[in-house]
Amino acid sequence: MAILGIAGPLMAVGTTFGFLFLFGFPFNSITLVMPFLIIGVGCDDVFIIIHAMRKTDKRESLENQIAETMEEAGPSITVTSATNILSFAIGIATPTPAISLFCLYTCIAVAVDFVYQLTFFVAVLVFEEKRLEAMRLSKKQEKVEEALGAPKQVLSIQNSIRSTAGAHPLPANPDGIVSRYCRFLKDWRTRVALLLILSGYWTASYYGCKTMEIKMDTTNLIMKDSPLNNIAWIYERFLWSEGQLVLVFVNNPPDLANEHNQHEVLELVRRFETLPYSMGRNSTSIWLRSFLYQSSLYHNTKGFNGLLQEWLDDSEGGGARWNDMLRLKKAENGTILGVDKFMFATACAMGDDANWATREKLQKQWRGVAHEYAHFNVTVFQSYSFYIDQLDSIGGTTMSTVIWAAITMDLACLLMIPGINSILTSTIAMMSINVGVFGLLSVWNVNLDPITMCTTLMSIGFSVDFTAHISYHYYRNPTSWTTDERLADALKSIGWPMIQAATSTVLCIVPLMFNSSYMVWVFVKTILLVTVLGILHGIIFLPALLLTSGDLSRLFGGSSDSKIQPEKKEKLGEISQASSFSSTNSETVLVKKDDSTELKTILQERGSG
């Protein structure tokens, strides 16, 4: 079952790659993280389905057991799959192509994995249960025949003895460890301690969020041991600090034969030369200054345009070297009508202030000057301009994406858990997890960039896995039970599968830890944080919050969450009837011990009768 449980997610990964490749979608290195995420999500579903199957009543037919299993596990895996799909679907709209493509691959893979879990894995589970049932019956029959020597009589009794492990009509054992744990969480001293711990956690997370630096480091896109790191270091250390060119394109220049227009263009150049960190006039290369300076050396009988043509054709002492920096308007006969467009270059040096904040400030100043001369249609180009453009938008894009993703998650949960207490508590827990992940990533030396934005979306989707399960199982329990009983039953039903799923998710990313790529390590750190924080919130914080909300509801006379639908749980009378055996003389003996004790007791009574 372990191998076949992994087979479903792997099939989903293969189907996704094949489908998208078939339609011509590109592939990039960031999508290689997707298979590990899908395996983690798939294992989560597998643990929940298997755990639900083990709780079914083995007296029922296999068809009914599967139906009860999917009734128990179906809503949980549906809400988590839906929230993951919606989370990555929102990420498809991000402006960064690589992140958008990754979200597309992951969104489709999660959807395909959900289909395979409901079809392939459930079918595998049916065959496995048939095999186990055959083995159990065979072993029991051999034991009874061997020990008692009464095959027919024992078999008739043994056919009536079935495991009563299934949906129990009563809440969890009040003396059990889960019930005691719930009472521990309900103690006011525990709640005060949790509140203090959470206050410190939220403070640290808020500090991390406020201090997270928006940064686009080119070295984050290559391996740590790549020789390209040396080039990136030289670029960072010398070019940005000691001088780098800025190219300015004037796409709609005025008539430069007019002296006033010449001064206006030179004033544009001067504005760039006097900006902070500019290296000044000596760093500027512009053809107009050279032309005006050298024009006195020529016999000016042809006017400005004619002299310009002669100057550009003079390869010895003229301006032939400037031909690549301007384009001329020409008539059909080749006569120059004027300058169509031109460019010039100037340099800047940031010195010790060479960082992304300074680059962003400089680019805004360059574009501010260009905007003042909008009638010239001025365009500024610098090699890292497109990085700055992403820096300008990534903060707002991340915030809006996170807000929309959180709203979408709540709406998806509301469809499956339409109860105010459950929704509010799960939303608070989900927000707490994501604030913690985002803040602690900053403390863990992770900057805000497109990769972090992508992992934030992943974190929102994964955080629902640790809150929706508990909230749903708490919500679906009978409202006649106390808050403690509902929570204890929820933890007993889903607590262990959640721990198994969290452990398997961490194990899935262990191979990624051997990769030195910054991008991969951001995913590793995010998954570790969301898994650890998620399981702590799901097992500790959210249960305490549910207990508190239940107490507040009773205090203010409110009612607790109503059920989605009547639970398919047997009445106590039905359990008593199913747990009794009729002997040949119509005497009824209640089963209260294990199978071997029951058999011996019944046979002794029959023998004495």
Name the features.
609 residues, mainly alpha, Multidrug efflux transporter AcrB transmembrane fold, 6 strands, 66% helix, 6% strand, elongated, disordered C terminus
Most strands sheet: 4 strands, antiparallel
- Approximate shape: elongated
Number of helices: 19
Q: Mean pLDDT, as a whole number? A: 80
List SSEs in N-to-C order.
HHHHHHHHEHHHEEHEHHHHHHEEH
CATH H-level homologous superfamily name of the largest domain: Multidrug efflux transporter AcrB transmembrane domain
Distance between the termini: 47 Å
Uncertain regions: pLDDT < 50 for 5+ in a row?
Answer: 150-169, 562-599, 605-609
Q: How big is the Rg?
A: 36 Å
CATH top level class name of the largest domain: Mainly Alpha
What name is given to the CATH topology of the largest domain? Answer: Multidrug efflux transporter AcrB transmembrane fold
**Architecture of the largest domain in CATH?**
Up-down Bundle
Strand order of the largest sheet: 2-3-1-4
> What is the domain tally?
3
The amount of beta strand, in percent, is: 5-15%
By DSSP, the count of extended strands is 6
Structural class: mainly alpha
Portion in helices: 55-70%
Protein described:
The protein is built from 19 helices and 6 strands. It is mainly alpha-helical. Residues 150-169, 562-599 and 605-609 have low confidence and may be disordered. Strand 2 and strand 3 (336-348) form a beta hairpin. Helix 2 runs antiparallel to helix 16 (483-508). It is elongated, with a radius of gyration of 36 Å. It has helices spanning 2-22, 34-54, 62-91, 97-148, 151-158, 177-186, 188-211, 228-242, 259-273, 287-294, 303-313, 356-372, 385-416, 420-443, 450-476, 483-508, 518-555, 572-578, 595-608, and strands at 244-250, 326-330, 336-348, 378-381, 580-582, 588-590. The protein has a 4-stranded antiparallel β-sheet. The chain has 3 domains: 2-216 and 389-555, Up-down Bundle (Multidrug efflux transporter AcrB transmembrane fold), CATH 1.20.1640.10; 228-383, Alpha-Beta Plaits (2-Layer Sandwich), CATH 3.30.70; 579-608, no CATH class. The chain crosses the membrane at residues 7-27, 33-52, 73-93, 99-127, 394-417, 423-444, 494-514, 526-546. It is found in: Cell membrane.
